[in-house]
Amino acid sequence: MKPMEIEQASMAIIERELQVALDPEIKPIVKRVIHATADFSFAESMVFTPGVVPYARELLAHGAMIVTDTQMALSGISKPALKKLGCQAVCFMADEDIAREAKARETTRARVSMERALAIPGSKLLVCGNAPTFLEPLENHADLKNTVVIGVPVGFVHVVEAKEMLLKTGLPCIVARGRRGGSNVAAAICNALLYQAAEMLDPKARGWQ
After folding, report:
1. Catalytic annotation, residues
2. Beta-bridge mates of residue 174
3. Greatest CA span in the chain, whole angstroms?
4. 85 alpha-carbon distance from chain centroid
5. What's the CA dihedral at 72, 58, 166, 75 to 10 degrees?
6. Parallel, antiparallel, or unpaired: how do β-strands 65-68 and 46-48 relate?
7. Is 145 helix (H, G, I), strand (E, B) or coil?
8. Is CB count within 10 Å lower at the N or C end of the chain?
9. Are 114 and 137 spatial neighbours (Cβ–Cβ below 8 Å)?
10. Against a cut of 0.90, is the pTM above it?
11. How does residue 1 score in pLDDT terms, banded at 50, 70 and 90?
12. CA–CA distance, 151 with 43 (Å, rounded to integer)
């Protein structure tokens, strides 16, 4: 089978086995996460703030920057989709100046990376799949404009708390509640939104990715 045929067959299986009724707006995103993880529990743990999906699509359709908390999430984001939309995706975690500042301040590179991201002008998707401290600076930036946050860190320490904090900020966001998540989940959400944004610009482009 060709790669696209495998994906289509996988999506058909997910559709058939999905036991949770989902709003059509969020269903393609949840299905792509399940496709990336083989974990149907995401159908119940994922939270979407009102209007976040069309808002994220609109930002991406106008070239929003994507900033991730890991190189792994960055590597999983579709490069053809980014190119089609004229979007840039970056990760600052490996930058030497980020490491130096984090060491000097005795904090995490993830936190310093988010602070750098917040200083960048323009619309953004801030994408967290691994490091909950990446989300911490957002607690003091509930008034952010032209920004969507994907908060799906995985783990045990401060993960649940960071996600709940994000939801309380009122920022437009997509969150996987609980301990589950990961860079693959973050990339899957990004790709679902990128594909939809690309189809907004060119309805005939379905299946191009």
Report:
1. 35
2. 48, 150
3. 52
4. 16
5. 0
6. unpaired
7. coil
8. N
9. yes
10. yes
11. confident
12. 15
